[in-house]
Amino acid sequence: MEKVLLHGDIDATVLEIQQVDDLKLKHLGVWLDDLKIEERRTRNCTNSPTVDESFHIRCARMTSNIIFELDLHGKAYVPAEDILDGVEVQKWVQIVGEGRYPIAGGDPKILV
Known about the structure:
This is Hydrolyzes glycerol-phospholipids at the terminal phosphodiesteric bond. Its EC number is 3.1.4.4. Keywords: Hydrolase. The protein has 112 residues and is an all-beta fold. The protein has strands at residues 4-18, 27-32, 41-44, 50-63, 65-70, 74-79, 92-96, 109-111. It has an eight-stranded antiparallel β-sheet, with no helix packed on it.
């Protein structure tokens, strides 16, 4: 995916997580690209389908994805192009494992 310039503030909220099997959420992180750069924010969460965790990220860089990480269970990728026009986006995003392969045990998703 092509990188785009994101400049400004990103207010990202995780509203809900579709729980599957033994997915126990303890930590939730958000950052830009796969670099785990300084925009990463981590929160401790309860193990509830309704999460409602908000993150405020200041950025001025080229990036291709906003990444939501759930412990070591997987990541959800939101393309940076989806937020370029400044309109609020709310959508279900698939949680994938290493190499962006589906996670065994279901089709977990996150509502952001």
